[in-house]
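Appendix B: complex inputs.
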Amino acid sequence: MATILTVDDSASMRQMLAFTLRSAGHEVVEACDGIDGIAKASENAVDAMIVDINMPRMDGLTMIRELRNKPSYAHTPMLVLTTESGTEKKLAGREAGATGWMIKPFNPEKLLQTLQRVID
Amino acid sequence: MDEMDLEELKEMFLEECREHVDTLERGFLEMSQAEQSVDLLNEVFRAAHSIKGGGATFGFADLAELTHHMETLLDQMRSGEKPIEEADVELLLESLDVVRELMESLGNDDHPQRLILQERLEKAVVKSDNAETDESAKTAPTEQNETVVAEKRSWLIHFQPKLELMQRGNDPLLMIRELQRIGELQLDIDFSALPPWENYDAKLCYLPWNATLTTSTSEDDIHEIFEWVEFDCDITITEVSVEPENVEDLVASADSVLPATLPAPQPPKSSSPPAAQAAKPKPAASTESSSIRVSIDKVNQLINMVGELVITQSMLSGLTKTDEPIDPDQLRDRLAELERNTRQLQESVMRVRMLPMSTGFARLPRLVRDLSKKLDKTVNLVVEGAETEIDKTVLEQMMDPLVHLVRNAVDHGLETHQERLEAGKPKEGELKLSAYHKSSSVIIEISDDGKGIDAQRILAKAIERGIVDPDDNLSEAEIHRLIFAPGFSTAEVVSDVSGRGVGMDVVRRNILDLGGQVDLHSVLGTGTCVTIQLPLTLAILDGQLISSSGEVFVIPLASIIETLEVSVCNISSLPRSGAVFEFRDQYLPLIYLKSELDLPGEGSEALIVVIESNGRLFGIAFDQVLGQQQIVIKALEDNYQAVRGIAGATIMSDGSVALILDPAALAPEVRANSAA
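Resulting structure:
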């Protein structure tokens, strides 16, 4: 079981994620935007992150780029959760250092399965 | 805590949606003005995006689809690809109305307009030649749990990583584990690619491998495992058309065979919530939301107050711990402290229910815009004091009257361009909404610089309708107030904006029902100002204490017109409709509290209180006037049962319980109906 940081500006989306992740026994840390995400990532030992792209203050890709540069998060799985699935967006995610992406809307079971691909 | 209901999540999502819809509306209205900031466009885009994403997740597919189309258009506006034109903003506003309706129907009903709007939105979007196929348009939840059991097939997988593969958090080991989970795996790792130890870098990925996988999983699903590393490795997956039992031989012929010994992960437990699309239909959609969002400040303040209360309580009990007699001065100090804490705590709790007026005002710019367009007037809406806080319930029930008043002001108050220019006023009319606190009330003013109210016309109409007598000598202010009289209408042309003018008395009644008051001030040719005074909260009420047969009752002060002595009243008993008494040249029905509520004991019934309820006057006879007091209303239904004529109960300062009379239910006509 892992500690997952979820970063999304929508509280309902965070709740839904937390609900899904906790049902599989994961610990969940929530953040409401990129800046909060970076703060929470430094306060907690996080095993993986699920990050929304469009957020106020700091978007998800900027957050991932910043965290990737920190030694403690250089290899941590960071998944982008987004409604945008075009190749261009995927490349932008990759360029920022995202591990992979998941598509909103998510099916809870599928999300857990997908997450399993990057956590021990 | 963790067993959170999906319905609750949906409710939460809808709550958020309402905020996003408000943001969108505000944004769209600002967009149509000359300069738009990038921030505004970003904010609007994000709001549409959030509704779309959440909509799809929580099973509101129609909502998601429509907002997706809006978002596409907004994205182009944001990037400057498409100039912002009035027609597009109009289209977005129309779409927003449908979004709102879809939301309130909880995704149960499709909207007849939705597909048409989507088509129009699609047309509005600038087509680019190299537009990639937009996968995100497919917002419908993807099919899961296919039940077809596919036959097992074997695949040969060749995997050649780039050195930096692990630098984005991917790990080939986990991919191997995943392959193992979906089928039988034979793995052949090429260790020759490892550099000598002195050159080895643990952060790099060196090892290529070949694998044979026998599985019933589809080719697409196998590819999906490598989805995230497609740019970080070379991968080929080819089907091998050999019988499964020969696979081992095939692999065994390779140079070094390693059995895959990684532990297979447990598949995720299926205790996850049911798919979001399995929406339970809800019978009725209510726009009044039953939850409230409270800023952390207020909660912190509340916690602080409770903390202080606990300290005071322990100080008080400390006084009694010693054997020494209690020092009265100290006791008095502590009790004063306790009283202060309690009052502050009460205020803090009340604040939790308070919302800024801006949540209600938010609907109005759109209304004003639509109206002024329709009527060909130019209106500058000015809002002041939007941060003024008011009880949530009061605010919600206040909205209909407020909308009505704003509508009236634009329709009847403000003049057309022509009329304004002729009157020497600027072409643009001004409508001002302001809210502020005054002692324990909230005042809302709706003022316009329009043509004002013609007192003579009102008076003529009122006389014609028999509302007043021609001989009545009314002041101008009294005449103005006549427009609140039931059935009064002055609109010479019945417009489709303000309807038939039946509204003002309804407005007044609604405000009175909330325990508020409404007044109007108008100067012909200069403008009109309607002032609404509302209580800060509904949970506390100014009450008049009275007694009858030794029982104490509370009458809401707002509904009392006057208190009289029976001896000066001319009371007549009528055979059928009970008693009546003379009050200001008219006869009003009279009820006796003692017989009405079946009270035991004797009473003088020497006083009459004249009550107004729903625009009708009647009298209640009782024994004694006791005083006025602010009271906290407790529901009777929760603790006992509903009693006709009683609105609730309150606890008096001596600890006894007093019942609060419900004027609306005691009014004689209501009694007749309920007895029938």
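The radius of gyration of chain B is 36 Å.
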